[in-house]
Design a protein that fits this description.
Oligomer: single chain
Structural class: mainly alpha
Number of helices: 3
Strand content: under 5%
Shape: rod-shaped
Helix content: 40-55%
Order of helices and strands: HHH
Number of strands: 0
Bound molecules: zinc ion
Distance between the termini: 83 Å
Length: about 90
């Protein structure tokens, strides 16, 4: 269906036009339901909300490496302490 206003660039689309005269958006690229949602910042209702993916994006990648880093720092400190004890 052709919208009256192009959701991509807000240009007026002539009734019956197959593509936006301004930006060339058409049913395939421009004014689908998904394009409307992207523009408004609303998740596509057709797309299921993937909680696991959301959590991974929000907290996941940063958490694990930092924990591993702390373990390595502790290990390095322990080793340094042992070397100091052995030196004396
Ligand atoms: Zn347009």
């Amino acid at each position: 269906m052709t919208p009256e206003i192009c959701p991509n660039c807000d240009a007026e689309v002539p009734p019956g036009a197959r593509a936006c005269p301004e930006c060339g958006a058409d049913e395939d690229t421009g004014w689908s339901q998904g394009a409307y949602c992207d523009r408004l910042g609303i998740p596509d209702p057709d797309e299921e909300f993937d909680r696991e993916e959301f959590v991974k994006n929000e907290f996941g990648p940063a958490e694990k490496p930092s924990r591993i880093k702390v373990i390595w720092i502790i290990t390095a400190l322990v080793l340094a302490g042992l070397l100091l004890l052995m030196a004396f």
